[in-house]
Amino acid sequence: MDGPVLLTGAGGAVGEAILEGIGDDYDWKLMFHSPPAEEPAHEYVVGDVADDDDVARAVDGVSAVVHLAGDPRKTAPWKSVLSNNIDGTQKMYEAAVDEGVERFVFASSNHAVGAFETDRRTPEMYREDDEFLLDGSEFPRPGNLYGVSKATGEILGRYYHDEYGITVCNIRIGNLTRNHPPIDYERGQAMWLSYRDCAHIHECALEADYEFEIVYGISDNDRKYYSIERAREALGYDPQDNSAHFDGEQRVVEPDA
Question: For residues 87 and 50, is the Cβ–Cβ distance under 8 A?
Fold first, then answer.
């Protein structure tokens, strides 16, 4: 990277995973919605993604954007997702283009296709072996307004890529938890994303040669709702974790040789 990488929403869990995993590998500029409790090790700004001046200040001087900021609540009301997630993402793209940013990585979500999971009778959700697997080529099918905002963010990325040539990667992030997958929660285990795999897929999105991508951000779990083959092919993603390698007491289970 020729300049700093802007990480918005740096105080959230995804930002935490990224900074823990690859924090020493890049010159970061962090954006927080509220002042951080501790002084960060990197340059940072405090601002609102829905405020044009705050966004311009955040994007100033950066070469890439990893955009995580927004209202993360799955039950967020329309007013909030419209302002924080949709309008905020559009402002970030607009400022990035004005600044000449070359690459934009957008934290999408499994909720962009959440309705598929509640209607498994849908034929396109199944491969020939009858395994429920989505690969990123399907149309969005959000199951809540938060998912609508994430699907809209992907479409904004498509527009800004086509119109301005900015490189865009949309990562449909699964169920991120530290150290171990959710216990006694099959759906969460199927879409589990470990902290180190989260850092790794974002590193891949910053480094790989591609134009526009939609990929799933999950670990290499035996049981999957989502395919990670596109992430492997387009980004060089090589996840190291698998929810099947943890037992109910949160111990690692060595995989068979």
Answer: yes
